């Protein structure tokens, strides 16, 4: 069963440009190979204000996501030092809502 990846608009505009180019490919491979096939197998559940969301580790970068039906909603892709604060500010986002 394949999952559809849906990205928060700021991921492409703000998050990805800040990732070094050599690591962008690594993160992209992790997303395509892991989150499209078995997000719960590779992800780790988050706690606290991000309960219900998951994280995927790709080196020093983290992908914060939520699985909804057959979709994976990706909130943020950032360095581990900044990712959770930024993800918390984006939790009200829903695909199609802008």
For the structure shown, list the relevant keywords.
4 helices; alpha+beta; five-stranded mixed sheet; single chain; 98 residues; 5 strands
Q: What can you see in these coordinates?
A:
- The chain is an alpha+beta fold and 98 residues long.
- 34% of the residues lie in helices and 29% in strands.
- It has four helices and five strands; from the N terminus they run βαααββββα.
- It has helices spanning 9-15, 21-35, 39-42, 83-89; strands at 4-7, 44-45, 54-58, 61-68, 71-79.
- The protein has a five-stranded mixed beta sheet with strand order 1-5-4-3-2.
- Strand 2 (44-45) and strand 3 (54-58) form a beta hairpin.
- The longest helix has 15 residues, at 21-35.
- It starts with a strand and ends in a 9-residue tail after the last helix.
């Amino acid at each position: 069963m394949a999952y559809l990846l849906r990205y928060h608009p700021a991921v492409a505009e703000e998050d990805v440009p800040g990732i070094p180019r050599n690591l962008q490919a690594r993160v992209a491979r992790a997303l395509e190979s892991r989150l499209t096939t078995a997000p719960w197998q590779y992800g780790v559940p988050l706690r606290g204000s991000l309960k219900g969301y998951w994280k995927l580790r790709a080196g020093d970068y983290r992908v914060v996501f939520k699985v909804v039906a057959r979709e994976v909603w990706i909130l943020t892709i950032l360095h581990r030092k900044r990712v959770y604060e930024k993800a918390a500010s984006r939790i009200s986002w829903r695909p199609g809502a802008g």
